[in-house]
Design goal:
By secondary structure, the chain is of the alpha/beta class. The chain has a single domain, classed as Uracil-DNA Glycosylase, subunit E (3-Layer(aba) Sandwich). The chain is 50% helix and 15% strand. A 6-stranded mixed beta sheet has the order 1-3-2-4-6-5, with helices on both faces. Strand 5 and strand 6 form a beta hairpin. Helix 1 packs antiparallel against helix 5. The radius of gyration is 16 Å and the shape is globular. It starts with a helix and ends with a helix.
Length: 193
C-alpha cells in the first residue's frame, strides 16, 4: 500500500512540474516542496508556503517554525513520522511574502490530490491561508483550536484551524494559545476513533 501511495505522491509532484504551475514562483525557487511524513497518517498539517530553509532542503517546516512544530508534536505525544506535513503553495514566494490568491488557487487541486491519497482523519491548518480554503468566511481568531466537520468530496473530514507556528514565534501571546490548542489535538483524534 505504501509504495502505491508514494508513487501517487510522486505523480502529483511530476504533474506540478510538467504543467508548470506558478512558473514565476518556480523560476526563483530552489526546490518544489511537496510534503513530508507518513503517507498513512491520521493527521495532515497544512501550512501556507515554504520559507527559505524549506526551499533549500526541499522539506516543509524545517526552519524555526518547524522546530516549534516539532516541539509541539513531542509535547502532544506525536512525532513527525506519525503525521504528514505540507503547504498549499509548493514553491517559496519571493522574500517569504504571503502566497497570492491566484497562487493558492493554482496549487489547491494538488493539495486535494494529496489529501485523497493520504486520507487523514484530521486536517490541521496552520495559519489563515490554509484555513480559508477549508473554512471560508471564518476568522482564525474566533475558531482556532475548534474541530469543524466539513464535507470533503464524498466523505466528511475534520478540520482543526490553528495559528501558524511562525506567528507564535513573533507574537508571544499567540505562543501559549497555539500550544494549548495543539495539546487538544490527541483528544480530538481519540473522539474520532
Amino acid at each position: 500500500m505504501e509504495d502505491t501511495k508514494q508513487a501517487q505522491i510522486d505523480h502529483v509532484r511530476a504533474d506540478i512540474i510538467e504543467k508548470n504551475i506558478c512558473p514565476e514562483l518556480a523560476a526563483q525557487a530552489t526546490n518544489l516542496v511537496i510534503g513530508d511524513g507518513n503517507l498513512n497518517a491520521e493527521i495532515v498539517f497544512i501550512g501556507e508556503a515554504p520559507g527559505k530553509n524549506e526551499d533549500e532542503q526541499g522539506l516543509p517546516f524545517v526552519g524555526a517554525a518547524g522546530k516549534f512544530l516539532n516541539e509541539m508534536l513531542a509535547a502532544a505525544g506525536l512525532e513527525r513520522s506519525d503525521v504528514y506535513i505540507t503547504n498549499i503553495v509548493k514553491y517559496r514566494p519571493p522574500n517569504n511574502r504571503d502566497p497570492l490568491p491566484e497562487e493558492k488557487k493554482a496549487f489547491w487541486p494538488y493539495l486535494l490530490k494529496q489529501l485523497q491519497i493520504i486520507q487523514p482523519k484530521v486536517v490541521i491548518t496552520l495559519g489563515r491561508h490554509s484555513m480559508e480554503y477549508f473554512l471560508p468566511d471564518m476568522k482564525i481568531g474566533q475558531i482556532h483550536g475548534q474541530a469543524k466537520r466539513i464535507q470533503f468530496g464524498d466523505h466528511k473530514i475534520v478540520v482543526v484551524p490553528l495559528y501558524h507556528p511562525a506567528a507564535a514565534l513573533y507574537n508571544g501571546g499567540l505562543r501559549q494559545t497555539l500550544i494549548d490548542d495543539f495539546m487538544d489535538v490527541p483528544k480530538i483524534i481519540e473522539k474520532l476513533s
